[in-house]
Amino acid sequence: MVTSGTTPALATEGLTRRYGRRVALADCTLRIPPGRVVGLVGPNGAGKSTLLQLACGLLAPTSGKVSVLGARPGTRLARVGFVAQDTPVYAALSVADHLRLGARLNPAWDAAFAARRVAALGLDPRQRAGRLSGGQRAQLALTVAAAKRPELLILDEPVAALDPLAREGFLRTLVESVAELGATAVLSSHLLSDVERVCDHLVVLTGGRVRLAGDVTALLDAHHRATAPPPPGADVVHGAIVRGPLPAGTGAGPVQLEELVLAYLRGEGDPR
């Protein structure tokens, strides 16, 4: 899904964030086009949550720049939806209370969209959020974030604690909501199967640095799996995964998304 426009949904330049002596994000330069569903992947401590919190304006950079929808983070709050890692909801409030609160706080609130999502999910509007299952709470948090009709939807590992069935339902709702809104979504996850299922753009972070970024189809086309030892001079990412074409006559096969990501997570080469 690609929408018109040239202003990136999220852009960074030399973005760095330190916590004392620890570097959480280092010299991060990114440009995420509008209309993508972006998978942000990396091991624990890679800097994923830090990057998303910087994009939301919850943190300030130590150095470098970050822009969201062409402006400084925090100045486009009405156009950005955010679902944090623990998919927070108010336990004492009912589902209907959450929708009423969303309507009061968001000028572009789409009550019809919210009502449709709640009905489609089978949520009881009278049910208190504290009595919902983990999957239902995640769905409610996503509904509230999406019903403000954001241009950018940021999700920080929202399915990490969900069982496979609840995770599948959440991802399906995410894809449906993004398609209806025409929005960009950035989904942080360490579950590569989820990223492969719903994302068309990929960002790989390791050690606080961007190792790989781009549209999934283009990245897969630009890499190969050597079926024999790669010849001297080949741009080896890790193991048998090679970036760029191999010499004529060298055996090569296509690369799957999971093995591409794992190669960059394991590799020690320069960022791509």
Average pLDDT rating: 88
Order of helices and strands: EEEHEEHHHEHEHEEHEEEEH
Spatial gap, N to C terminus: 24 Å
CATH homologous superfamily heading of the largest domain: P-loop containing nucleotide triphosphate hydrolases
Q: Helix proportion of residues, in percent?
A: 25-40%
CATH architecture name of the largest domain: 3-Layer(aba) Sandwich
CATH topology of the largest domain: Rossmann fold
CA radius of gyration is 20 Å
> Which strands sit side by side, in order, in the main sheet?
5-6-7-3-8-9
Poorly predicted runs are none
Global shape: globular
If you had to describe this structure to a student in words, what would you say it looks like?
With 272 residues, the chain is an alpha/beta fold. It has eight helices and 13 strands. The chain has a six-stranded mixed beta sheet with strand order 5-6-7-3-8-9, sandwiched between helices. Strands 11-12-10-13 form a four-stranded antiparallel beta sheet. It has a three-stranded antiparallel beta sheet with strand order 2-1-4, covered by helices on one side. Helix 5 links the parallel strand 6 and strand 7. The radius of gyration is 20 Å and the shape is globular.
